[in-house]
Model the fold of this input.
Amino acid sequence: MTGADVLLLALGAVAVGSGALVVLTDHLVRAGLYLVVCLGAVAGLYLVLAAELVAWVQVLIYVGAVVVLLLFAVMLTRAPIGRSEDLNRPAWPAAIIGGGAGVGLAVLLADAYRWVEVAQGPPGTAELIGEAVFRTWVLPFEVLSILLLSALVGAIVVSRGQR
Amino acid sequence: MSFSPYVPIVALFVLGALFALFSVSIAPIVGPKRYNRAKLDAYECGIEPTPQPVGGGRFPVKFYLTAMLFIVFDIETIFLYPWAVSFDALGLFGLVEMVLFIGTVFIAYAYVWRRGGLNWD
Done:
């Protein structure tokens, strides 16, 4: 096992563990904070896999912005800051579905690749991503601006109402 | 990939974690404990603490709009970064692309502005 393998395993364990805590905790705010740990560990995974730009985008967008939006959403609804007793629904169906999907995907991937050595691609630096996005994938990039436009307009319509 | 550029960052993370652990664990041991009303108040950056309504209370929806604005322009900034790094290789084509992109998001910005989304009250 190389150092990268050990890091991958450790970060994966942190991601899965904190992800489980997100759904197991009774505190909605704590669930959001465990999500920070989970998404941060996933960013670490990207970093170990040499996807540098994706890793920092993960930190900036998901850890930095999406979790803030989630916590605001908790504050905007009448969710209590402390424990929520009504969250204790029967957990077995969810556990079976989630665990089954995770183990099933792992088995599928392990079976598909067996012990084939997959050569690692070039590191995902900003130069490479820039070339790819702004040369090959121009149309999706421009369509994305429409998505951002509709997100903002939607936010205004939802929060301000029709006037 | 080589992890050598990240060694200082990891070292700083470790130092920061150690400092936090040290402060939190040493403070109850060596600090004197003389409580009074002001000390037991919730700390809100030095201003008078706002009492929480019973049952948690709800926050104004303006916070949501602010967070949405932040995310949209955060994503726009993220795309500016790889674009700026490979700007020389892309040339005029890249410039036109980015002008179109920013122009579209600016329409949303103008819409938000006109609808009063930037006013707090």
Summary: Chain B touches chain A through 49 residues (CB under 8 Å). The radius of gyration of chain B is 24 Å. The mean pLDDT of chain B is 84.
